[in-house]
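Annotated sample (chain length 747).
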Amino acid sequence: MRLHSAICLILFLLLTPCVQGQHESLTVDRIFRDGQFNASSYSVNWMPSGGRFFVKRKASNGTGNDIVLVDPLGKQKDEILIPASGLIPQGKTQPIEIESFQVFSDNTKVLIFNNTQRVWRYNTRGDYWVADLQNGGVRKLGGPAAQPATLMFAKFSPDGKSVAYVRDRNIFIESLVSGEIRQITETPNEFIINGTSDWVYEEELDLRDGFAWSDDGQQIVFWRFDTSDVGLFTMVNNTDELYPRLIQFQYPKVGTTNSSVSIGIFQLDSGRTSYVDFPGDPREHYPAKLDWIPGSSEFLMQRLNRLQNVNTVYAVDAASGQFRIVFADKGDAWVDVAEQIQFTSSGKQFTFISERDGWQHVYLVDVATGDQKLLTPGAFDIVQLYRIDLENGYCLFQASPDDSTSRYLYKQAFGSPELQRLTPADQQGWNDYSVSADGMTAVHTHSRMGVPPTVQTITLPDHQTVKVEEDNAEVKQRVEALAGITQEFVQLTIDDGSGGDLQIDTSLMFPPEFDAAGGSKYPILVYVYGEPWGTTVTDRWDSRNYMWHRLLCEHGYIIASFDNRGARCPRGVAWRKAIYKKIGIINASDQAAALRELLDRHSYLDRERVGIWGWSGGGSSTLNAMFQYADLYNVGVSVAPVPDQRYYDTIYQERYMQTPQLNAEGFRNGSPISHAQNLKGKLLLIHGTGDDNCHYQTMELLINKLIAEDKQFEMMAYPNRSHSIREYENTTPHLRRLMTDFVLEHL
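Output written by the structure step:
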């Protein structure tokens, strides 16, 4: 009891706010309860032509927001498109709130989204309002009997006379002239979804908005899901009502049946709906992305096969439903959906980002013939395409050819091997851009590891600052008031498994007053993700994990992070696809090898105090580290992992691992549960019981395995929390305090 009380007192003192000399100390509450280090962003709605944008801005009287048209170059005065006073509904005294908005092309109407609610990941359901600038007033869509927060993905018709939206799994068209509401789809049973997606498409293909107007406004094309044969997953809410409540939804686990997905075409004049008769079993293909071809009755549809190693691009005639194959993008591992399609003004060509030559490059594809021209040759990856300029023959894009931990703006003439970096040399780190339609201006966000973002409008291509929109000065001052730490990015050389050298990007954070030569031994905590969806070694601001790591630095810890093969880095296809069919195997091996190399390099690192933590895929990587390399890692914190890959969803897991039927050995060897009997160190498991993504079910399977193997561990289940474990009062501070206490006590 006395020892326990002493430990608690020490932890209390370590976590209590105080001032060390001239520096303020970090606490869990400062970071996660008070949000003192949350940086502000700045977003704009660019006009479809030219270089001006719309923003919402606090009204001069302090009540509500105006929607303002801005010329970032200052050649025209800011114009209030609609004042907050024009957003007061009839019978009300206050203007409606604006969470997001879209302006019709002639600037006569504004569609406003508010009162939003989360649907799985994002707030995609809410209320929509139309503000009419010509006739005045603002009115709510959905009809007088509409329930609050039930509409999704509302969008103007091309002539601006109607708005289409999704409600209760169906698509409706509401006339802005007569107020008439027309339902254009039917749901004969609870398994049919129109105009939006099922769980797995939303999570893994980012498909939420599942319908689109044709350019002439005569058709609406939409996704139709039949989920009837998909396995039903059940979660139990034990706390919100007197009796437990079941939460059920269709969730296809790897190797099981997917939804049957059809593409419907509704003709407004006849009221008839037809469906595109794509070849093959609709349950074995993923229609992933739709883009209307400007000036035509055709749309492009990207359609993946189930193994996701072929992406067939179809051109579909909306009037007849007939289709033709434009071309197919293929790979030895998986291929990605091309999210950033841009059409030429004639509509005869479009951009397509592919990795077919070993790097992620921009191609210009002929709509009629499928012929492709490489626009961006070179041994580098395009991270994000911002603009193509056919008239002047160049591309603007984000890339980082020489340093995969950073991002910069580049310009490249079509077909030229030469790259021109537009981001100034003094803005090292992470640079994101939102570029105007004419390519002459942009909103630029710059940050670094430990440096909160600055947002400014700039001119292009000279990258001159016009105005600083957000400097986050207060957050920067709070960071600067903390005890100084050192941090660096290095590359470690490890064996690639075949006798060759492999360079591993590494980030390191050191405690205040760190002394490499003083003889002290420092504990080290590794932050890991490890799977193909993301990276952790990035020279950018992260208000949550970075600040928590910095808190641990103040208590004497060194924080390290490694990006293994398979991480989503701009290092070419060979790097990213090396993990194919080997998740949980090659990433765990690379992580362990990088850690050993770091320990061998630096005698000040304490080999007896090595910890690792991660969330989601990082939680799985943490388990594999603790189980497969039990002599290397002493402490682990695994949050929301997938201990058995066979229990995760089809689209994500099969993309990288194939199916369990085709890759049984990979699923077995890469799943942490297969190695749980090897656990030696201290392990903390954390999971939300309402996690619809990485199910608590798999955590219970792991717990049973650890119990059967007589392995001791600690665990915390957060009732009804989702994958983010942030719902309900005080959840995030509680979770981070739990993690902090565990690390301080055991590492």
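Annotation: The first helix runs from residue 2 to 15.
Annotation: The two ends are 21 Å apart (CA to CA).
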